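Researcher: Please translate sequence to structure tokens.
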Amino acid sequence: MKRFSENGTLLLVVSSVFFTAMALLARRAMCDLPPAEVTFFRSAIGAVICAASFAAGAASLELKRPPMLVLRALLGGIAIFLYFKTMGVLGAGEATLLNNTFVVFVAILSPLILKERFSWRLGAVVAVAFFGVALLIRADMSGGIAGKLFGLAGALFTALAVLTIRNLRRDHGTLTVFFFFSLGGMATPLSTFGDGWTVPGVWTGAILVLMGLCAAAGQLLFTHSLRFSRAIESSVFSQLTVVWTYAAEIALWDVRLSVLTGIGALTVLAACTYLGAAFEREGPPHGPVV
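Model: Translation complete:
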């Protein structure tokens, strides 16, 4: 039997549990705090973990290309801010689903930015994914459209962040890239500082700390799992976060999904799973960057 650290499938499942817990804890924290403040604390805890690792000598802070690292921080910070803002409007399940459509934008942007091949098959899957998104928008034409637009904008910035990660991973370690992502996630929400921000109570503070720890654990486990899992496995299991988050919301917050929302969500999940597997077969890093 494989050790846990070398069992790609088990690592993927556990990382998806941590990402689900992060999303649910963030939603709970937003009952007391605005999304921007929750984003700040989620990122601050990740930055502290990275800084402690650097100080302890467990990893090295690499500054080989500062402009690219700053770009990583900027794009990642905007992406995570929009993800949490979406969550504040739509809830954790749909926000996570829309964020996972970043692979669709990667498929569109890669040929334009990296001059990679774009086949008619990938184009057809992209069209299917956008059809699923259209169903999600059509399912709620009342107050949820702004949230869906935030979610899609967040997915676009996540895709740009992924392309930046692909560039940085040639000569920078995981913790350095994650550290600058966390710094960006701290800086971006500060534009709304004072707009409803409050000092968290003891209970809310504990939730924020646990949320940040879950986010860091999920990210690091997912990154480590890519060494031991096949492309299709990591693509399929990365969608578990969406499924489990939706399921937990239904159980804990009595969320109700319409038939149209369910069909749209399944369509988007299937398309994103296919695209994720297709990109991993060709080598680019793929996975949650939230």
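Researcher: Any highlights?
Model: Residues 4-281 form one domain.
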